[in-house]
Structure formats: structure tokens, C-alpha cells
Recover the amino acids of this structure.
């Protein structure tokens, strides 16, 4: 099984994450931030990655450290669970509609951290959640999982729809990229021999 458990503790947050890349999309526990938990649930459900996490953060300041540190820890767990990346497809894409919104995501489990973010969220808040934190989460996740992730909003006017579609499309692309390719189960998908 491709699983990992990571705990990260700072003066600002304490985050514990368990992931199972070969799961059924179960999401347990949460961050205490309603909208963010809703997005993480979408990420788990549509990627079929089981995610269990507990987070204690300095939310009396704001949600920034909690969201960013969750991205860091989840990224580290994802990277560890991938192990040597033998047999994976490596690449994944998704073109995902959600009502008026259309999101395109492409991912490469390359070992090189890069986020390309072309998403405009029309409002600064979704409920009490700062929309700028969505990019912060994806940046932290990419930096610590060492993946290349492109997220482009092709259409959309509703911030909730845009944000949710970004998480769902990323989940779909990750699901495709982490799948085992039966034609090269024992091979790393790179001419270099490693990723």
C-alpha cells in the first residue's frame, strides 16, 4: 500500500496527516475551517486518496498558517506515499465543468516543484474564508510534494464554484497521475530512470 503519515509542529500550527493513495476517497477529521474542509473533502473524494488529518492552528490570528501548513504537510505525505514512483502514469489532466465554471488542470509528478496559477476569484471571501488562501494551499502542496501543477480557470463568475472546481479538477488529475500503469509496473516513467 502506498501510505504515509506525517506530523509537522511549529509555534503556529500542529498538523498530522495520513494518506492512502490506493484508498476510496475517504476524508476524516479536519482543520476547523468549514469551507477549507469542504475543499479537502472534494480533493479526497475525487482523487480516491484517503486523507485523515488533525490540525491545531493559530486561528485567533487568521486562517493563513493553518491553510498553508496543511498544504505543506499534505504535500510531504503525498511525496512520501509515492515512494520511488515505479509504475505510475506520472501525468494527469482534467477539464472540469461546474455550472458556469470551467477549470483545466494538468499535473506532472516530476520531482520538480512548480505551480502555474491562472485563476481569478472575483470575491475576496467565500463566507469567512479568504479566497487568496486557495493559491497558498496549492503552492505549499506543490512545493512539498515536488510536483508540477497547472491550474487555469477558463470560465467562471462564482468564487465558490471556481474554488471547488479547482480542487475537483486537481483531484481528477492526481488520480490519473498516481494510477499504476500495468504496462510498466516496475519502471519509473522517465528516461532518466528516476523522478
Amino acid at each position: 500500500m502506498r501510505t504515509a503519515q506525517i506530523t509537522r509542529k511549529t509555534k503556529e500550527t500542529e498538523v498530522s496527516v495520513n494518506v492512502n493513495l490506493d484508498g476510496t476517497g475517504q476524508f476524516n477529521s479536519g482543520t476547523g475551517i468549514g469551507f477549507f474542509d469542504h475543499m479537502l473533502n472534494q480533493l479526497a473524494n475525487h482523487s480516491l486518496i484517503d486523507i485523515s488529518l488533525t490540525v491545531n492552528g493559530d486561528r485567533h490570528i487568521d486562517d493563513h498558517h493553518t491553510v498553508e501548513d496543511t498544504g505543506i504537510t499534505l504535500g510531504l505525505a503525498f511525496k512520501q506515499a509515492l515512494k520511488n514512483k515505479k509504475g505510475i502514469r506520472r501525468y494527469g489532466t482534467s477539464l472540469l465543468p461546474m455550472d458556469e465554471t470551467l477549470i483545466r488542470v494538468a499535473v506532472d509528478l516530476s520531482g520538480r516543484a512548480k505551480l502555474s496559477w491562472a485563476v481569478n476569484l472575483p470575491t475576496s471571501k467565500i463566507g469567512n474564508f479568504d479566497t487568496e488562501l486557495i493559491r497558498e494551499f496549492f503552492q505549499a502542496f506543490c512545493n512539498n510534494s515536488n510536483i508540477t501543477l497547472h491550474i487555469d480557470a477558463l470560465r467562471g463568475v462564482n468564487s465558490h464554484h471556481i474554488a471547488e472546481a479547482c480542487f475537483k479538477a486537481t483531484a481528477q488529475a492526481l488520480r490519473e497521475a498516481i494510477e499504476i500503469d500495468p504496462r510498466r509496473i516496475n519502471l519509473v516513467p522517465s528516461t532518466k530512470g528516476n523522478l
